[in-house]
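FORM 12-B: Structure-to-Sequence Request
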């Protein structure tokens, strides 16, 4: 069992993200996972730096901790060849500590170039094609590829990765699961769904199964739950809405009636480690083996200290 720290680009500026990654490594986290967005979900979050610039700084600032995206959409706002080059560069800078986690994206971030927003089945088809482009370019040599969705014209990576870059696929249902079994080296999910983790393991073997757990640490449980509501209530909308709403204003409106108590069953909140461990346990029981802890709010120093002193000593029970 591995435990990670979520680098929320929506909640923190670039310098803070790099410092948080450094602190996470010192506190004993096994990996960091960084969101790759153009917009935050809600106005109160207030940030969204370019994840790939931050990744370069993190690769240089840390020395042990594994690094992954969570998630990058490599099919609309980015061309797959550009992400192949970006991932290879971070892999070189981190000396092989990097994994590329990709997903079908959200309209919130991908519409900014004016590109058409495809249906979910088409986006999954595009993801499969993107994975093939990554692997071809990472293997070296000059490539010209003319696929159904993407063209690569006489492209060669001169900064090859030092080894294989694992590709993790974000999944939320049967379509994503089937694609992951066919093409990915692991999966990443946000729900404690046994059909995803155990379904992938049954069909693909013992490959990494990443998940993300939302926690709201603070000295008062009610205040921490309110903080989770104020900053992360968008998660209560579930994936079909989260992938389709195009603006921050839309998320504000769609989530305005979510109450703190609506999030009590899904978010570990307050100062009691048992509340947080109960939230983590759901994902461990579902079959995930790389659990990324997302600490809501500005006090990341407090959250990382809480992990090191209160949570980490007790997490061995889930191994």
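FORM 12-B RESPONSE
SEQUENCE OUT:
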């Amino acid at each position: 069992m591995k435990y990670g720290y979520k680098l929320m680009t929506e909640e923190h500026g670039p310098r803070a993200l790099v410092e948080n990654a450094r602190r996470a490594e010192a506190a004993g986290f096994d990996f960091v996972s960084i969101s790759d967005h153009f917009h935050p979900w809600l106005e109160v979050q207030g940030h969204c730096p370019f994840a790939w610039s931050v990744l370069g700084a993190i690769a240089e600032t840390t020395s042990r901790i594994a690094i992954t995206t969570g998630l990058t959409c490599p099919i609309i706002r980015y061309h797959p060849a550009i992400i192949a080059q970006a991932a290879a560069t971070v892999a070189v800078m981190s000396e092989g500590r990097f994994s590329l986690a990709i997903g079908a994206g959200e309209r919130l971030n991908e519409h900014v170039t004016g590109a058409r927003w495809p249906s979910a089945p088409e986006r999954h088809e595009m993801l499969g094609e993107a994975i093939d482009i990554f692997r071809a370019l990472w293997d070296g040599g000059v490539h010209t590829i003319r696929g159904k969705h993407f063209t690569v014209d006489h492209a060669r990576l001169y900064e090859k990765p030092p080894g294989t870059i694992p590709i993790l696929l974000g999944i939320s249902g049967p379509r994503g699961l089937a694609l992951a079994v066919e093409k990915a080296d692991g999966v990443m999910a946000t729900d404690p769904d046994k059909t995803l983790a155990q379904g992938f393991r049954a069909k693909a073997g013992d490959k990494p199964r990443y998940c993300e757990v939302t926690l709201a640490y603070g000295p008062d449980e009610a205040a921490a739950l309110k903080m989770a509501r104020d900053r992360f209530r968008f998660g209560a909308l579930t994936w079909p809405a989260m992938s389709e709403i195009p603006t921050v204003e839309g998320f504000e409106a769609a989530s305005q009636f979510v109450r703190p108590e609506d999030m009590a069953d899904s978010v570990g909140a307050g100062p009691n480690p048992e509340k947080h461990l109960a939230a983590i346990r759901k994902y461990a029981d579902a079959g995930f083996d790389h659990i990324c802890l997302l600490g809501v709010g500005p006090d990341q120093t407090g959250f990382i200290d809480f992990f090191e002193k209160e949570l980490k000593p007790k997490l061995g029970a889930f191994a």
